[in-house]
Amino acid sequence: MKETLSQVGLGDEFLEKYPHEMSGGQRQRIAIGRAISTNPDFIVADEPVSSLDVSVQAQIINLFLDIRERMTLSMLFVSHDLNIVRFVSDSIIVMYDGRIVEMGKKDEVFRRPLHPYTKMLIAASQGELERGGDRLAIAGQSGCPYATRCCQSSRSCFDGVPPLTGDDGHKVACYNA
What we know:
- The chain is of the alpha+beta class and 177 residues long.
- It is built from seven helices and six strands; from the N terminus they run ααβαβαββαααββ.
- Strand 5 and strand 6 form a beta hairpin.
């Protein structure tokens, strides 16, 4: 256990501490330590830095990158912060309303986003506010889940869910991409 604490940058004194005696970053390090203590091949990190201040976020991200390299494990990193996603990811999946709308290698998705939602997210991460279509959604409506907010939507977008198409490096679920 002491070795695991050391791997996440904490001292032996944390063996005796309660959660309320630790900062958010220290609690996150404990959670990461628990996750790696079984020597996993795969870790799911769901919004691991969302409640931390920026300086602590950077420390935790660097810890994840160090662990990933040292332990040669794979990680599913879930986040709404595209700037962090860009920093930690090799491949990216963009989801809207529980559906994959775009996926691909990190550089390809950021350099050439295809789905209107991905374009909007990237613009927002760069400080640009882009407003969608905001059409009235109809309960039980089939079709693309983003169609009512999309400026590019056409009739086909409301008729059926677009399939995920493309090559291994970059795929999109959009009739108009």
